[in-house]
Amino acid sequence: MSDSNRPDSYLNTQSRFDHPEVASKYVVKKNTLNNSKNKREMACIESALSGLPADSRVLDLPCGTGRLEMMLLDRGYAVVAADYAHAMIEAAQTYHENLLKDQPDKSARLVFQREDILNTSFEDDTFNAIICNRLFHHYPEAALRQQVLAELKRISKDRIIVSFFSNFALSALRFHLSNTLKGVTPDDRIPIWFKTFEQDIHQAGLTISGVYPVRRGISPQTYLQLTPA
């Protein structure tokens, strides 16, 4: 699919995050890792990874500035951290070069590379697990979500862990109410109903094998473990 045929939300998301000044806002810091929001998200991801053996190949796409990588390395995985944005990858590499300079075993298990999530360079069934964190809320189009899920399914042979913004949350209600009162039609970070995303998942040939809400009924951020149908 050429860029001219790709949805604006897809192109806008790529463009928005591929700037050094944007990446600098996401650089991993100690206070980032220690805050309660990050800890809750990490707990959801680790629950979804439960039972995955050490030495498994794991893809983190999009990896952003590398917030998940140390957790994955600590679990013994061989990690590919990928993103479309050069700025994000460069920030992630810089952070981990400093962090891992005295940990050669972990450093050897971590690779960074640039990838397009709709058209990755990987062979079928390359990874034991794939994590797609904080991306789907940027994609309001069902067809785009289904395309991304289908590509992740193609390169995974075990499980896929994704997050999305669920309508079943107080903050989602505030989001919709605020935009209605302002007369604004949002085109990004839009919470959707669980059933809506479930239909996308089934359309891509996947099934939901685990559900992990960050703060049930309060936060829209929800993690799902997906496996081939």
Question: What attributes characterize this protein structure?
Answer:
10 helices, 42% helix, 229 residues, Rossmann fold, globular, seven-stranded mixed beta sheet, alpha/beta, 7 strands
How would you sum up this structure, described in words?
Helix content is 42%, strand content 21%. It has 229 residues and is an alpha/beta fold. Strands 3-2-1-4-5-7-6 form a seven-stranded mixed β-sheet. Helix 8 (142-155) crosses helix 10 (194-203). It is globular and about 55 Å long. The mean pLDDT is 95.
Name the CATH superfamily classification. Vaccinia Virus protein VP39
CATH architecture: 3-Layer(aba) Sandwich
Content-based structural category: alpha/beta
| Total beta strand runs | 7
Give the end-to-end Cα distance, rounded to a whole number of Å: 26 Å
Q: What order do the helices and strands come in, and which of them pair?
A:
Layout: H1 8-17, H2 20-26, H3 30-34, H4 36-48, E1 57-60, H5 69-74, E2 78-83, H6 86-99, H7 104-108, E3 110-114, E4 127-132, H8 142-155, E5 156-165, H9 170-182, H10 194-203, E6 206-213, E7 221-228
Parallel strand pairs: 1-2, 1-4, 2-3, 4-5
Antiparallel strand pairs: 5-7, 6-7
Helix pairs in contact: 8-10
In brief:
With 229 residues, this protein is an alpha/beta fold. The chain is 42% helix and 21% strand. Strands 3-2-1-4-5-7-6 form a 7-stranded mixed β-sheet.
